[in-house]
Amino acid sequence: MKQKTLFFCTECGNETLKWAGCCPACGAWNTIVERPPETVKKGRGRSPAVRSAPVSKACPITSLQDSEEIRFSTGVGELDRVLGGGAVKGSLVLVGGAPGIGKSTLMLQICDMLCRSFKVLYVSGEESQYQLKLRAKRLHVGSERLLVLSETGLEEMLEAVGEEGPDVLIVDSIQTLYNSKLDSPAGSVSQVKDCTMALMQLAKGNGITVFVIGHVNKEGSIAGPKVLEHMVDCVLYFEGDQHTACRILRAAKNRFGATNEIGVFEMADSGLTEVENPSQMLLSGRPEGAPGTCVTCVMEGVRPVLAEIQALVVTSAGGSPRRTSNGFDYNRAAMLLAVLEKRGGLKLSSCDAYLNIIGGLSLDEPAADLAAVVALASSYLDRAVPSDLAAIGEVGLTGELRSVSQLSQRISEVRRLGFKRCVVPAHRGLEQVPDLHLLPVRNVGEAIRAALRPTE
Question: What's this model's pTM, rounded to 2 decimal places?
Fold first, then answer.
């Protein structure tokens, strides 16, 4: 019997009988590819079953016990923070990031701490066992309870899990894992979905905590079908520039905790080290007396973090001025430039404007508006913002300043880092704090005058 040709969306895995420019399921463009339907080579099932998985039965929800502690620490405080207080037994965690960013290094480092209480199996489809030994030696990782396996076959990996019975399983990476019963190459949509489903059944049925490493594509999302992120319990993104030492771990999805926490690491010769005070690291090397820079405080979960916003405003050489932002929302930057021209009296329509956030942070909350406005005005007027001044506040279209949430925590972090003055929106109930002079302002004009006022 002749088989029909199917079309698949590389983003969500949706199957269609005809090619289309736009996926009808997820709406992505140019993601429909032609591929013959996969065939099962041998055996009846797709993914091999895990023999030791118990058969689950339905039971009343009132009879379930919630007193048992299902979380455990990974030994890395920044990772525990992002996970919501530690890893969860029987969960499936996907760790994504660009090649060479440090995903494998992070996973191998946590093995040293996990092996003190658990049995860990590290399966690598990208490195041999000898290469894993060299990496572990460089990271000072060594334990009899750490088992390593260089394998890409799903059946062989599950067989090793059944024989060794580990408490934690690390798979590096999901794109190299394949099921030989499917007639499709490793890394394809069907292979990634099938292998992830087998790992999810393994985690839920046997109570094994599974960490899966996944590569990202050029758009910055996990390579493979989008349904992969819906199947797992937690999606972590490891971000940063390979040319800098700062690495940021953030959660894009977490069924057991918040998704607005971040973990900060620094890449060293001996591996990743935790940064307990990210504000101090992000502000290190800040130039003094240079126009176009201002510090603000943003909330990453429950943690206040100081960030430096740099701006450069120059006269445009062409007819159309250029606007560029790195780490700051482009549309919001364009809005702030329009407010500065209309309400602040700065002629920016004929100038090129550039915004940059130091340290690889992405500021997506309105509390950074005021610091961006001050930095742009400082660069335009060529007047430096005092090094001991910070700015926190949201800017409206009429030029007014609005208060932000958790202002007291932000002000406390500003004071702790040694700043002496802070420009904040004026509102009732604002109280002065020791060793920090608050400068309440009502609009962008007052903010620019307060921030760029010459010090006596």
Answer: 0.75
Cα–Cα separations (whole angstroms), residue 208 to 68, 204, 211? 16, 7, 10
| Amino acid found at 106 | L
Contacts 24+ apart (CB under 8 A), 52-59: 52/162, 52/165, 52/205, 52/206, 53/201, 53/202, 53/205, 53/206, 54/205, 56/205
CA pair distance 380, 389, nearest whole angstrom: 18
State the pairing for strand pair 234-239/92-97: parallel
What is the C-alpha separation between 294 and 390, in angstroms, rounded? 6
| Contact in structure between 278 and 295 (CB atoms under 8 Å) | no
Residue-wise pLDDT tens digits, 401-448: 999 999 999 999 999 999 999 999 998 777 888 889 999 999 999 999
- Which helix or strand (DSSP H or E) is residue 9 part of? strand 6-9
Enclosing H/E stretch for 268 = strand 262-268
Q: Which one-letter DSSP state was computed for residue 61?
A: G
The CA distance from 335 to 343, in Å, is 12
**CA distance to 5, 18, 21, 229, 278, per residue, from 24 (Å):** 18, 11, 9, 19, 43
